[in-house]
């Protein structure tokens, strides 16, 4: 495998040839918790410590993976290795400039970068948790991997084909996830065109989440109203907050506590 050592960071992000091993200065590597596939960007301290010892002893550590996103090199795979390298090296030494990464090229957008991170880790040594696998499925759909064609704008794949893309996930599970997270896509795949939202359902699960958060906030604001007058102001503020969060007119205030979301 070819290697390149970037000892002095240039004025612009270096162009790293896809598939080639580079030693990249840490200051040129951006770590975004929204890109990495680990839940909320959290790592396991014990695993980080073990990898840090490998770095210190000169043992073999598999290179991380990075992609150029929005003009800067962003970590795609290797969050534990990154934190271990930071832990194992002195900030003042040249070794901080030798973090091993393999370039995945340029990611066209953050949605694609998020899917790349989950795809790399789907069958990785450090298994994804149930929550991370569900998030990986969402990223798969958001990146239009559930469609055929070079630009992912063709016909829908079957659940059998999606199962082949995500080995280890049962077809019945994928079917349930699609109906729960992307009901518009699920309806279109089933041929129910009248139930198809037109936007592919790519925001369905996010809209549900926002609606739940808005309803909770609405409850809290209304609860602040002690008198009829203050309650009226609280309701008005809650209605406006709900509308801004969801873009929808809130349902009528129920007689019972809670909003049924």
From TrEMBL:
It comes from Glycocaulis abyssi. This is ParB/Sulfiredoxin domain-containing protein. It comes from the Bacteria.
